[in-house]
């Protein structure tokens, strides 16, 4: 590849979308532009009608996504000052499972006057949690029937996924359900919008809709058992899913013209934001443990073999990179647990500065010096206990305990929780070497990165790249374009050619490691007893609280 | 008793002494005066020499105690405007075990120029903890030898007690040890100072020096086994101890003259501050559970029978009221745990106001609504686990947890810890009815009192008296004076005649009780697992911290 070529990646996040122009010869991030969604997360009232939404609702407006395409792409092109014909490919990634009902021609129902006032016609954002009762029912029936597919998902389906959201729609608004030709991932929808071709991809289908190439969807009689009458699970989903990097098509003429791009730009099938960080961070081989560290942690591993192991979010063939089984695991409360402490208990500095202050003060403490250990279950435990009803704990408190010691203990608990996830992979034959970390908290907390190195005994490397998911999306765009066009034949070649340098690396501290081994032994014992053998204690506390709230509500007392 | 009579009580606390004039016909508190100790708690440097004291040291100056006598008594007499001849008795109570080495004539060694520069010549305050290694050794040997006396103390001697402090002196400064004719409780010393008679009492001897009327002191060969060469345990203590209420003598002429009191004023043998709260609070019968609620909680029970039960501080014949076995139990971190939370984690309001704010906010929450449970072991657990190495815990934390919920959980943990102590008494045949509570936190936290009522299922009554220990001391003074002089023949009669009214009573809330039963079941399970079966986890955390500090100290790193 000698001639100059660029690819565009668009990363659709929760509050905004970011477009990146990537130089395919050097891997340099040439230009970036962010466009915030005008309506952001719609979680209080429905636009226009003002209808109040339930507590667990979270919607988005597809117009906001289209605005990212129309604004951010011309903006990066202008900033980059690159000849438009040198842009050869485009890839997108999106939050997931963000899904919307669409007409047969791809028009979102919520954009049509006859459905606009119906909340269920709108795209449901990944963190829309109103389908929890459906997820509970689906899990219960899957466990009863000992459904084989469940073991690919660590034994539990999330309420955030495709079928809970689809069945919620089916139960709550049959009119919208019947009017929808499809119920589609936003990432697949935006590709359809860009190319005119409906090309759903395997990543979301595998991780969020329980599909596998070998077994297809969960069996119809399973759904029928859980929800009699809901008998055609593929009706709104289809059964054809394309591998990542597949060319979905090229830009529609009218869009290409508006954006100032040639119609020849190849568009890859859609991607999911966390998974696309793997190529984005320069990872294309097994044995590397990628952590996306933000509000929560998403751990991603690829391996040539399929292993069923407990407590993962999912294992999907070709789900992350074609040719590998992709494993996802995670910790639920990370950045938000630290933010909780700073905001709620951090005193007057709880304004962002408070965070930096605690980070500095905690960094001055020695490993093992706090006498504290925490269980990082402020929002339940995903990996490896898969128990949303667990809650957090701090142990070892004395009259001498200082706030910075508690902050450090919380931070250490994230690293201990992570060590447990890594051990789980190793115990099931997936050997991991280096840790690669990216995401906001990986940048913001060198202390957390060092403690992860010290507790895991592994080097933690931070890639020198600021737009990891968009990079990954752009690389799939370059694969869709192909080597002949100046792109790449496959994603591994693309990654190798553009791999970002290392911004920082944290080596395990040989003195800290044995001390953390001792603290981790305590953590691990508490993990087993409070997380398994005695898990009913923590669950019981939650139960009492829930019962109490229900009782108060019955009596008409003010709720929480 | 028809003629007017008054008694004086002096309560020697940690930072000050308070004198009370009590009307023996009505039980009214006629006048009170407080005198702060000029040197307070001497815990940094020795006065005059400026020698630095160790971390765990806490001394006092006997001149400060004498200043209370000389200042506070004239002050209450002046304020009361009562004829001096109507004052018939005087009693004192003191923190314990606060002990000092004295010459044969009762002069404290630390007041003599030749010993003044020697730290061990000074009175060691109850909370002087530098004798912990001695206490550890004494406990170890007592357990090995299966010493019978140990079971009177719930299986563990405290470092605060008489023999740890005496042996610390014997080990560290043989010169002072040999020069001391006696090593005496401050309460017995002040009575000696007032009357010229050395009359040590049974309360401190029993609770702090492991003496009993039946068995005497622990055997000489026990001490010899623990500390070869330390072979005469009674040498500085004596073997004669007088029942509470015994007349030690009358005021020395020169003191009487200086104070403006008749020489006929009868002085009772000394008392210990927590125990004397029993008569002070109007309790003279078995079946009542008296809680002195302050920085820590001291629980006092009297019963005609002797029962050996685990986890109490001690059971002593005649130790609280003559004719009964007196039981002491307790919780170590109470007011100071709440203060820790307000000061360290309570945000900008942590200035005293913060406390009231949290109290109000926590009172608005419903029982069971926090989803939290805490183990109140911020300073170890006294009753009933007797394990100083346990540490505190908060469980059930979520991203929604608010500071006022944590505050309430800490407060509830005090009540749960108390319920466990009460259950322990009941399990061993000591049936308890009403709870009577006094002390600073009992006044300051109606919420804690209500929660204790709700968790124990018992009425909690607060006596309408502001000077409970000084009342008790004054009543013993009135008994020392005797009925003929206008006092009383025995303490039961004295208590019955002067019993304070009820200021407030908290009835158990029948709706809250079953909810707390559910939370308590969780608390109790955690108590058993983290406090017993898995106690090595919490102990291990402490061990790691201690090892780490030692390692840092070796390397010359800055300590904590």
What does this entry look like structurally?
The structure is a homodimer of 560-residue chains. Chain A is of the alpha/beta class and 560 residues long. Helix content of chain A is 38%, strand content 17%. Chain A contains 18 helices and 18 strands. Chain A has helices at 62-80, 132-144, 162-172, 174-179, 186-195, 202-208, 220-226, 253-259, 277-280, 335-345, 353-363, 403-427, 440-444, 446-456, 468-481, 491-498, 512-533, 535-555; strands at residues 6-12, 16-23, 29-36, 87-94, 99-102, 182-185, 247-250, 266-268, 271-272, 289-293, 297-303, 314-317, 325-331, 373-375, 392-397, 435-438, 460-463, 502-506. In chain A, the strands form four sheets. In chain A, strands 1, 2, 3, 4, 7, 8 and 9 form a seven-stranded mixed sheet that branches. In chain A, a hairpin with a 5-residue loop joins strand 2 (16-23) and strand 3 (29-36). Chains A and B meet through helix 10, strand 15, helix 17 and helix 18 of A and helix 10, strand 15, helix 17 and helix 18 of B. Strand 15 (392-397) of chain A pairs antiparallel with strand 15 of chain B.
């Amino acid at each position: 590849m000698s001639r100059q070529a660029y690819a565009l990646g668009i990363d659709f996040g929760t509050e905004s979308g970011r477009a990146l122009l990537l130089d395919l010869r050097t891997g340099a991030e040439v230009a970036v532009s962010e466009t915030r969604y005008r309506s952001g997360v719609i979680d209080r009232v429905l636009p226009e009608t003002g209808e109040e939404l339930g507590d667990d609702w979270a919607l988005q407006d597809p117009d906001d996504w289209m605005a990212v395409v129309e604004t951010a792409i011309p903006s990066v092109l202008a900033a980059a000052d690159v000849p438009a014909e040198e842009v050869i490919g485009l890839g997108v990634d999106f939050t997931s499972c963000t899904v919307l009902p669409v007409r047969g021609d791809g028009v979102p129902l919520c954009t049509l006057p006859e459905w606009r006032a119906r909340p269920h016609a709108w795209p449901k954002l990944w963190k829309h949690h109103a389908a929890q009762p459906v997820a509970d029912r689906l899990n219960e029936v899957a466990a009863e029937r000992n459904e084989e597919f469940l073991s690919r998902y660590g034994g539990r389906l999330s309420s955030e996924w495709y079928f809970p959201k689809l069945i919620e729609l089916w139960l709550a608004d049959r009119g919208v359900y019947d009017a929808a030709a499809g119920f589609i991932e936003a990432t697949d929808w935006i590709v359809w919008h860009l190319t005119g071709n409906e090309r759903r991809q395997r990543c979301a289908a595998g991780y969020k809709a329980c599909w596998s190439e070998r077994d297809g969807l969960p069996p119809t009689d399973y759904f029928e058992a859980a929800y009699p009458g809901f008998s055609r699970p593929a009706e709104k989903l289809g059964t054809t899913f394309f591998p990542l990097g597949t060319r979905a098509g090229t830009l529609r003429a009218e869009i290409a013209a508006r954006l100032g791009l040639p119609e020849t730009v190849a568009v890859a099938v859609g991607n999911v934001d966390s998974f696309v960080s793997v190529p984005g961070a320069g990872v294309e081989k097994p044995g590397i443990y990628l952590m996306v560290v933000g509000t929560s942690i998403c751990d991603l591993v690829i391996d040539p073999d399929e292993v069923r192991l407990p407590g993962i979010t999912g294992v999907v063939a070709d789900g992350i990179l074609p040719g590998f089984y992709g494993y996802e695991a995670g910790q639920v409360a990370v950045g938000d647990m630290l933010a909780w402490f700073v905001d709620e208990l951090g005193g007057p500095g709880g304004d962002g500065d408070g965070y930096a202050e605690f980070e500095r003060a905690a960094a001055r403490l020695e490993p093992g010096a706090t006498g504290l250990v925490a269980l990082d279950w402020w929002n339940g435990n995903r990996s490896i206990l898969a128990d949303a009803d667990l809650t957090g704990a701090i142990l070892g408190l004395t009259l001498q305990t200082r706030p910075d010691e508690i902050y450090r203990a919380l931070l250490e608990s994230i690293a201990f929780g992570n060590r447990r996830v890594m051990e789980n992979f190793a115990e099931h034959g997936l050997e991991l070497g280096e840790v690669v970390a990216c995401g906001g908290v990986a940048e913001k907390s060198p202390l957390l990165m060092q403690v992860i190195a010290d507790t895991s005994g592994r080097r933690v490397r931070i890639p020198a790249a600021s737009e990891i998911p968009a990079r990954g999306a752009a690389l799939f765009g370059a694969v869709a374009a192909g080597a002949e066009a100046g792109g790449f034949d496959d994603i591994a070649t693309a990654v190798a050619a553009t791999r970002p340098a290392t911004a920082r690396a944290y080596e395990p501290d040989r003195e800290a490691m044995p001390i953390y081994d001792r603290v981790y032994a305590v953590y691990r014992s508490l993990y087993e007893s409070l997380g398994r053998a005695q898990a009913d204690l923590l669950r019981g506390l939650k139960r009492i609280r829930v019962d109490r709230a229900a009782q108060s509500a019955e009596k008409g007392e003010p709720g929480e």
